[in-house]
Amino acid sequence: MRYARRAITILALTALAVTTGCSVEKDGGDSGTDASAQCGSGKEFLIGMSQANNAEPYRQVMNDDVSTAAKAVPGFQVVVSDAAQDNSKQVADVENFLSQGINLLIISPNEAKPLTGVVKKAYDQGIPVIVLDRKVEGDAYTAFIGGDNVAIGKAAGEYYAKTLLPQGGKVVEISGLPGSTPAAERAQGFREGIASNPKIEIVATQTAEWLREKGQSVMDAMLKAQPDIDAVYAHNDPMAEGAYLAAKAAGKETAIKFTGIDALPVASGGIKAVEQGRLQATFQYATGGREAIDLAKKILVDCTKDVPKSTTLGTLQITKDNAAQAYTELGGKQ
């Protein structure tokens, strides 16, 4: 018998879980070769991890979390591919995984729309697909695991409105990759959060594609165009750190306040940047790597039939008051 998902009729939009079983069943009969092995303990499973861009520190930590968690599951082998922020390469990476006969796909899409088709292709072949961190369009996947980016953005906005800039001020926004769902959702949430303080004005928004060096160059240009910036809302910590470096080069690092998102518990992460005074705050965005492997174990080893369609990871606001404690509690090493 082959690993499977049962066909769900009438779209079953009220269901919060997908169904997995022990054989592939599709509308119209057998689909041919199935890449997934029969579920159960004592078996070997090949998991393909399709990463959007290993150059981002967040994704390096995600890969480590996936690999570390997988080592604790007998029979799990994880192969990681790096799309290097290239949609076409990521599609090719997934196609390559399918040709290798993976038993399960974990994917963190570079951008939503370009990766939707190949994710659906894997899912339609009966391969369990866990979409991690960034979403695809539609619901042709087994499960999504990630933070609530609108809520995180809103929490950041409320922090600006009530604590960071209670008297108002000019804010520049350095955003993530335009086609990625976190960028759109963090922008939306931030605007919802600052709505209670009409004296806060977003005077410029520009993408730095999640990268520190681009955050620095973008901020350098913004400082020339907007000399009276009060604060920088960056969609992740590396871009916030890049913006800080640009401000420091212009002699304005103490006049401008910086916040980011991710709060990685590593020496080069946002928590330490807050603790050391470069950032005023960061907001935790868990990688979901361990949770993805836990779910993969339930599907492949435990043969769990019903798994959550969506799992939302929690967040934490980190300022200088709780940075040291948060670093320890989130597993940071000294």
UniProtKB/TrEMBL annotation:
Residues 1-17 form the signal peptide. One of its GO terms (cellular component) is cell envelope. GO terms for molecular function: carbohydrate binding. Its main location: other. InterPro entries: Peripla_BP_I, SBP_2_dom. Residues 47-300 form the Periplasmic binding protein domain. It is found in: Cell envelope. The keyword Nuclease does not apply. Keywords: Signal. Belongs to the bacterial solute-binding protein 2 family. This is ABC transporter substrate-binding protein.
